[in-house]
Write a structure and sequence with these properties.
190 residues; alpha+beta; Multidrug-efflux Transporter Regulator, Chain: A, Domain 2; 2 domains; two-stranded antiparallel sheet; 7 helices
Length: 190
C-alpha cells in the first residue's frame, strides 16, 4: 500500500481537482478537501478508514479515488446524503469511473522522497561540530546516521520517521527488510 499521510492525500486530491471540477452548486461546498474534511468523511463512512502504522494514519489510491469521487458528485449538486447513497459499497472500478483521474496522479512532493535525490555535497569537516554524530532508529536493522546532529528534537525525529515510511515500505517490498511483527497484547504474552 502507498503511504500518504492525510495532508499528502488532501494535496493530491486538490492537485487533481484544481481547475477540473465544476463550480459547486452550493457556496457551502468546498471544491477541494482539507485535513478536517477528510476526517469528517471518514466519520461519515464516505472514506475508508486509513491504515494505521503506530500512531500515524496512511492512505492509498482507493482513498484518493473516494475523495475525488465525493468532490465530483458534490460539484454536480449531490448532497452528502446522496453521495453516501451513491458510493455505499462502491467497488474500486466504480470509484475510478466517477473520479475520472488523470492517467497518473500528481507526484508526491520531492521532499517526501529524499532518498531518490543525490545527497548534498559534504560540508566543511573542519567545523567544531564535525565529529558530532546522531542516530535515529527507523526500524529494526535500519538506523539513520546524521553527521553533526547533536541533540535531535523529538518532533523532528517523528517527521523524519514519517518521511522515511516510503523508504521502509520499499525495503520491505524488495525483501531487504522484514515486515514488522504484529503488536502483542497482554493475552498474547505467556
Amino acid at each position: 500500500m502507498e503511504g500518504w499521510r492525510i495532508d499528502e492525500l488532501a494535496e493530491r486530491a486538490a492537485a487533481i481537482l484544481d481547475g477540473t471540477a465544476a463550480a459547486a452548486v452550493s457556496g457551502r461546498v468546498t471544491p477541494v478537501p482539507d485535513r478536517r474534511m477528510l476526517r469528517y468523511y471518514t466519520t461519515l463512512g464516505l472514506l475508508d478508514r486509513p491504515e494505521m502504522r503506530g500512531r500515524v494514519a496512511y492512505y492509498g489510491r482507493r482513498h484518493l479515488l473516494q475523495v475525488v469521487a465525493i468532490k465530483r458528485l458534490q460539484a454536480g449538486g449531490a448532497t452528502l446524503a446522496q453521495v453516501q447513497e451513491a458510493l455505499a459499497g462502491a467497488t474500486t472500478s466504480t470509484l475510478e469511473r466517477i473520479a475520472d483521474l488523470p492517467a497518473e496522479p500528481a507526484a508526491p512532493p520531492p521532499a517526501r522522497q529524499f532518498w531518490r535525490s543525490a545527497p548534498a555535497p559534504a560540508g566543511d569537516h573542519n567545523r567544531p561540530d564535525a565529529g558530532v554524530v546522531g542516530a535515529l532508529r527507523l526500524a529494526p536493522r535500519v538506523t539513520l546516521v546524521l553527521d553533526a546532529a547533536g541533540s535531535l528534537d523529538p518532533k523532528d525525529a517523528d517527521e523524519i520517521k514519517a518521511a522515511a515510511a516510503g523508504l521502509l515500505a520499499h525495503l520491505r517490498s524488495a525483501g531487504l527488510l522484514e515486515a514488522p511483527a504484529p503488536p502483542t497484547t497482554r493475552r498474547d504474552r505467556p
